[in-house]
TrEMBL record:
Source lineage: Eukaryota, Metazoa, Chordata, Craniata, Vertebrata
Keyword Phosphoprotein: no
Organism: Rangifer tarandus platyrhynchus (Svalbard reindeer)
Record's keyword annotation contains Membrane: no
Highest taxon listed in the record's lineage: Eukaryota
Protein name, as recorded: CIDE-N domain-containing protein
Amino acid sequence: MSAVLRKPKTFKLRSLHSEKKFGVAGRSCEEVLRKGCQHLQLPISGSRLCLYEDGTELTGDYFRSAPDNSELVLLTADQTWQGFVSDISRFLSVFQEPHAGVIQAARQLLSDEKAPLRQKLLADLLGTVSENITAETRAEDPPWFEGLESRFRSKSGYLRYSCESRIRSYLREVTSGASLVGAEAREEYLRLVGSMQQKLQAAQYNSSYFDRGAKASRRLCTPEGWFSCQGPFDVDDCTSRHSINPYSNRESRVLFSTWNLDHVIEKKRAVVPALAAAVHDAEGREVDWEYFYRLLFTLENLKLVHIACHKKTTHKLHCDPSRVYCAPVAPRRKRPARQRP
């Protein structure tokens, strides 16, 4: 049994599943536990007290040093508490599958709130719980399509178009690179670009990258439509853990347009000039246009990045000189003729 203090210590006590707290005082851990169980009508057997902050169990040894007015959680035998993280987990579970009451309560709080920071937090939460992620068609989620042409009938269809538009813009930039070569090599340059265009057409301009309904190997998002930032060109991951779901609501759809498909080896500074130089210096060698195709239009050299992770500085990366030209095909050796006996 723990030592009994002369002067009682005061605590704020609550049960696991209640936000309501009440004051309790006692000269020992056992006295506080007994009073708490009596107030909450819980069995004393197996019950215990934990600090709300970090889940530390309040024992006789710790009772003496515990600060006055510490917040405690009273747990029964089958309950656990890990501190703040437990409350955060419960909070997130409520907003993962919110019901109408949660949304209505959030809207009421927002209408009465005056502090700018709390307004922002509530507005962000309300935006999140009001999302209609599973909806796919214009009929299922009309607000998502506001401002878009009537020809777009599904979210996936629009996002495929969005991705295709980006890839087409890259192709236009590559085509304009013909000005970097002389007139005698320009025809060959445009022939190679034409081959790339045919491959893109066959792949539907890699529009599946933004389509949540595409095969896993052909998309950049989860089946629900969540995209994660892949970090700046010079790191392996996004330390800020940026993520977005443009399928969720109109605002997220608009914000997603600010995310970039960034070329690790830069398109304008490195890839297009290298392609032009390869055509100019070919001297009978065959340019490996598929190598340049992968650098320009595929995830081999593209990273999806949040605008804050899109570094505008020079990447100082270059194409691999050993891959610019196709390997020469060795001539087939003729088999010696068989001599007749």
